[in-house]
Design brief:
With 198 residues, this protein is of the alpha/beta class. The protein is 47% helix and 19% strand. It folds into 2 domains: 38 residues; 148 residues, 3-Layer(aba) Sandwich (Glutaredoxin), CATH 3.40.30.10. The radius of gyration is 26 Å and the shape is globular.
C-alpha cells in the first residue's frame, strides 16, 4: 500500500514539474524580449501624424504646408491596403510628416464637422450614407479610397482616386508639394516620369 502512495505522489510531483516547466517556457520572454517590445511599440507609435479636418484648418493658418486627406470607409478593402502598403512605408511617412498636414477622413462618419463657418453633416442613404464633407471634397464621386490635396488656404487642388503604391504616391506627393501642378497640368504623366527616374 505504501508503494502505491509513494508511486502516486511521485507521479503527481512529476506531473506538476512537467506542467510548470511547460507553462514557464510558453510564458517566458525571449532573450531579446525588451528589444522586440521596443520595436513593436515604436512601429505602433511612429507613422503619419494624422489630424482632424478641424485641426488642419487651424494649423494651416500657421504655416504654408499643404493638406493631404485620405478619404476612406471602414468597409473599403483597398483603403486598408493603402494603409498597409503605402502609408506604412518610411519614405512616405517621412515626406508627408515633413511637407503636409495629413488628415484621415471617414467618408461615412456620423459626426458633423464645421469648416470655414459651414457645418457638414452625415446624410443617411440606404444602408450606409455619406458625409457631406466627403461629397464636397470628392465632387460627388463617392468611391474609395481617394486622396485629396488642398493648398495651404484649404482650397481643394484635386482628388486622386484609387489605391496607389508607395512610389506612385511619392510622385503625387512631390507633384503637389513642389507646385509642379501649377506649370504642368498632367499629374499622371509627371508621376510616371517620376517613377521611371527612381
Amino acid at each position: 500500500m505504501n508503494k502505491k502512495i509513494i508511486f502516486a505522489t511521485l507521479f503527481i510531483a512529476l506531473a506538476i514539474v512537467v506542467s510548470y516547466g511547460f507553462i514557464s517556457k510558453t510564458d517566458a520572454k525571449p532573450e531579446n524580449a525588451d528589444a522586440v517590445t521596443a520595436t513593436e511599440t515604436s512601429e505602433a507609435t511612429e507613422g503619419i501624424n494624422w489630424i482632424t479636418m478641424e485641426e488642419a484648418e487651424r494649423v494651416s493658418k500657421l504655416d504654408d504646408k499643404k493638406i493631404i486627406v485620405d478619404v476612406y470607409t471602414d468597409w473599403c478593402g483597398w483603403c486598408k491596403r493603402l494603409d498597409a502598403d503605402t502609408y506604412s512605408k518610411a519614405e512616405v511617412i517621412e515626406y508627408i510628416n515633413e511637407n503636409y498636414h495629413a488628415v484621415k477622413f471617414n467618408a461615412e462618419q456620423k459626426e458633423p464637422i464645421t469648416l470655414g463657418g459651414r457645418t457638414y453633416k452625415f446624410v443617411a442613404q440606404g444602408r450606409r450614407g455619406y458625409h457631406e464633407l466627403a461629397a464636397q471634397m470628392l465632387n460627388g464621386r463617392l468611391s474609395y479610397p481617394q486622396t485629396v490635396f488642398f493648398d495651404d488656404k484649404l482650397t481643394i487642388i484635386t482628388a486622386v482616386p484609387g489605391y496607389r503604391k508607395a512610389p506612385e504616391m511619392m510622385g503625387f506627393l512631390t507633384y503637389f508639394n513642389e507646385n509642379i501642378y501649377k506649370t504642368n497640368p498632367n499629374a499622371q504623366e509627371y508621376v510616371n516620369n517620376y517613377m521611371k527616374g527612381r
